Amino acid sequence: MKTRRQRGEEIRREVMSDPFVDRALNNSNDFDAPLQELVMETAWGTVWDRDDLPRATRSLVTIAMLAAMKCSNELKGHVRGALRNGCSVEEIRGVLLHAVPYIGAPASLEAFRSAREVIEEFEKAQQADAE
Amino acid sequence: MKTRRQRGEEIRREVMSDPFVDRALNNSNDFDAPLQELVMETAWGTVWDRDDLPRATRSLVTIAMLAAMKCSNELKGHVRGALRNGCSVEEIRGVLLHAVPYIGAPASLEAFRSAREVIEEFEKAQQADAE
Amino acid sequence: MKTRRQRGEEIRREVMSDPFVDRALNNSNDFDAPLQELVMETAWGTVWDRDDLPRATRSLVTIAMLAAMKCSNELKGHVRGALRNGCSVEEIRGVLLHAVPYIGAPASLEAFRSAREVIEEFEKAQQADAE
Amino acid sequence: MKTRRQRGEEIRREVMSDPFVDRALNNSNDFDAPLQELVMETAWGTVWDRDDLPRATRSLVTIAMLAAMKCSNELKGHVRGALRNGCSVEEIRGVLLHAVPYIGAPASLEAFRSAREVIEEFEKAQQADAE
Amino acid sequence: MKTRRQRGEEIRREVMSDPFVDRALNNSNDFDAPLQELVMETAWGTVWDRDDLPRATRSLVTIAMLAAMKCSNELKGHVRGALRNGCSVEEIRGVLLHAVPYIGAPASLEAFRSAREVIEEFEKAQQADAE
Amino acid sequence: MKTRRQRGEEIRREVMSDPFVDRALNNSNDFDAPLQELVMETAWGTVWDRDDLPRATRSLVTIAMLAAMKCSNELKGHVRGALRNGCSVEEIRGVLLHAVPYIGAPASLEAFRSAREVIEEFEKAQQADAE
Lengths: 131, 131, 131, 131, 131, 131
Known about the structure:
The structure is a homohexamer.
Chain A: H1 4-16, H2 18-27, H3 33-44, H4 55-68, H5 72-84, H6 89-103, H7 105-130
Helix pairs in contact in A: 1-2, 1-3, 4-5, 4-6, 5-7, 6-7
């Protein structure tokens, strides 16, 4: 049976992509390697492995929390993850618009700026694939 | 055609129940009546009226943001709304467990305490109906 | 010349009333007396003593920050202070309504609940005086 | 009669300047255009249109909340708006100094850094005009 | 070898006391039992089991974060834990006073109110023991 | 006897280094000089001058709060200060790992990114000295 740590890495790779996880692991050094291990085990290897919510819903819920907490960097990663988990651009936008009356306009504007960067990259990549 | 204000009250009644909205409106006085109007128009009459997300997803996303912002009072209202919008207790719990590695254990413990109160009332009411 | 500590207590008494400050000081014990001293000196004896803003504006600005930070207890104290500093109920309400699109509806609803308690006490006291 | 949306754009142009609003609208794309509409209607077209506070006070109160929420980008915009609404540099500084004991030194230092950039641009532009 | 879950419960019992953990576990129901398990495993069974900081330092650092996040309920638990981990009342007060210029006076006042309740109970219990 | 302002500058220089404080003072202009004075007096000249906690503990506690509040800029300064106050890299990492279950993974990842920059500079400088 897989350990939480192994299961965590597996799920993180499925959601965030191999290049993303490879980069996170390769960039880590003595100082922050234990953080990568802790996040892999206690975030990806626990709640993302539960079956009470579909992954696409987890992605939308994660985006909502990251917008509320104004964590732009992590938000970008999870917008990418949401697209990989099958969420449409319209759903992601729907969550960020839904946030406006709850978290306020300033936090929402910040979230939109970060999300838009990722969406634009994604749409360019799709166009390039189509050509 | 309905105004945003009218549409907002209609949706709020569907999601939060007539008794809840009646209480909010009847309890409002000169001081906070303009707040009730503003919330009805700019929260319920706008984003809740969009069709880019199903209402059950809006409920789960709202619960996630309220947990992240530690707004216990509003969280209780929206756990009730989530149950009315067809979310199961398992899905609501799934969102709050998913929040643990993102918002931290202390904020999650607070959210669970508030949500549990509403879930217990709801389950008692269901049992009473069944008898 | 007065020390910051002395000047702080003087201003705090003017803004928050003698009974309020007496209660804060009398209720303090060995554990939190140093906090009372620190707050008197580094909040009331510094920025409240500057002349770049009228006191009524300071009150409104303080209420806005406390609403944004969801500090209900302190908000109540400063709504009382605002009324003593000559702010009208309409201005206080104006600030809290202005906050809605910035800090979001949930934080604003919490702020209104706290402010309303103080406004109601204040209006009762005024009526009693008038009779 | 103007709609909230129309009134919102009008007020936003008065407070934030035509070039600022033109840029915001021209930069918006399919993804974030609905956010621009929502903000125009539910922030600028509602509370900024109320007459219970002078615009200069609204600006100061907004700056206070944005400092408390650490929204640097929006803070810069509203420091510009405050200057256009007739607030002096001394009043803006007064609000940010007043914030120190309430929101803490770290958030205040961040707010000062952002505000200073805008103030410096503004003073350069004034000098250029004077020459 | 003990699992993280087992080690977590062991450490939590050492820090928070048996009655505290028994109460937490006995009070949990179907809804929040998975939260108790998750917290035991991913908070108590991981970072509290590291040997890079003495437990007393962990307690002080935890109190500082809970004060910054305004989590009063959890703060009370960890003030109790700090006393059990050998921190003196003076050190706990030292941390909360140190917080004032960083998190601001309002959040600090809230933290002091919560901590004081626990300190008073503790000092009463000590006096009763001494008699 | 030294004033709080003088004592504050002295302590700030000991903790943050002369070049750091010189830079902060030299960079300040008419707009933000009063902030520098206020911070020197009400943060460095008060709580950092108390003897209820060793300076190394103050550093760790400060880092914990800055991570919780997501103040990256200030966090970097205080990681430098912690190293000057005699904290080891292992202790600083211990605090940031300890934060993960409390403040959540996204805020912790942000704190690690900022801290790592400072640690790397510090280790390079040490190596250069050794050569």
